[in-house]
Write a structure and sequence with these properties.
It is built from eleven helices and ten strands. With 267 residues, it is an alpha/beta fold. Helix 6 packs across helix 7 and helix 10 packs antiparallel against helix 11. The longest helix has 20 residues. It starts with a helix and ends with a helix. The mean pLDDT is 94.
Length: 267
């Protein structure tokens, strides 16, 4: 998949993010291995743009990264007085109004929200370090396939901050409150075996098999009819917020829509 991705003409290629589309599969690649794919506001805007640039034909989105690390997290330049060129530094943001700070963080979060759209299934292919914002970007996807050298860590708390790039909700949903708290509060590494055992990863494979495993999973996802996958995803996404009886009702309504559609019966 890595070489195939480079053979395609990119739909988007800017600020450390490349988007390519091959019919029903889109690939978003982090392309700054020299900095271990460290993240910045410019990268987040590019990720948001990638989500908005997906053609309607896309059913599966693969998120991958060049180099030995998926993403080492937030570029530490963000914490310097000068910040990034053309960007307000985090120190400047902290001195602004509460409303301005909230709006800025909300804009950053948009790079992490679209991966769970109902019309696509997203897969993160994760190797090496996935730290802080890198961990949260992997958590933003529906599914995660990891290499056996993966090292997840949530380091925000040790910096005096909190994870604020939408990672806390999926983390608790995947591993439970107690383990999520322990992972975040200690900042320790979660390796491949634990990631797979606790549900953080759907599959852990040797690093050289990562692209092939993700390709196999993408093909399997495409084998089912698109509308059935969309309805199933919506059912499962809402299950945690619904009661048992509400979920039963939602299942019936979804199945009725599918049966009417298959029978060619209009609403």
């Amino acid at each position: 998949m890595a070489s195939h991705d480079k053979d395609l003409d990119p739909v988007l290629d800017k600020d450390g993010v490349r988007l390519t589309v091959d019919d029903a599969i889109a690939t978003v690649t982090l392309t700054n291995p020299a900095k271990r794919n460290a993240q910045s506001p410019a990268l987040w805007r590019a990720l948001t743009q990638a989500g908005r640039s997906l053609p309607g034909s896309v059913r599966v989105v693969v998120l991958r990264a060049e180099g030995q690390s998926f993403s080492a997290g937030l570029d530490r330049q963000a914490f310097t007085p000068e910040g990034f060129d053309g960007e307000p530094s985090f120190i400047d943001l902290a001195r602004g109004s509460e409303a301005e700070l909230d709006a800025t963080i909300a804009e950053y979060q948009e790079a992490f929200t679209w991966w769970r759209r109902s019309d696509i299934v997203s897969i993160a292919a994760v190797q090496g370090h996935a730290i802080g914002a890198g961990f949260q970007l992997a958590l933003a996807c529906d599914l995660r396939v990891v290499a056996d050298d993966v090292q997840f860590a949530m380091r925000e708390t040790s910096l005096g901050l909190v994870p604020d790039l939408t990672g806390t909700h999926p983390l608790v949903g995947l591993v439970g409150y107690a383990r999520a708290l322990e992972i975040c509060a200690t900042g320790r590494f979660v390796l491949a075996e634990e990631a797979e055992r606790t549900g953080l990863a759907n599959l852990a494979v040797p690093a050289e098999q990562l692209d092939a495993a993700v390709g196999d999973l993408a093909s399997a996802l495409l084998a089912a009819p698109r509308d059935a996958v969309i309805e199933t995803k919506a059912l499962l996404r809402g299950a945690q917020e619904r009661t048992y009886e509400e979920q039963r009702t939602a299942e019936r309504a979804s199945q009725a829509r599918r049966l009417r559609d298959l029978a060619g019966v209009g609403d």
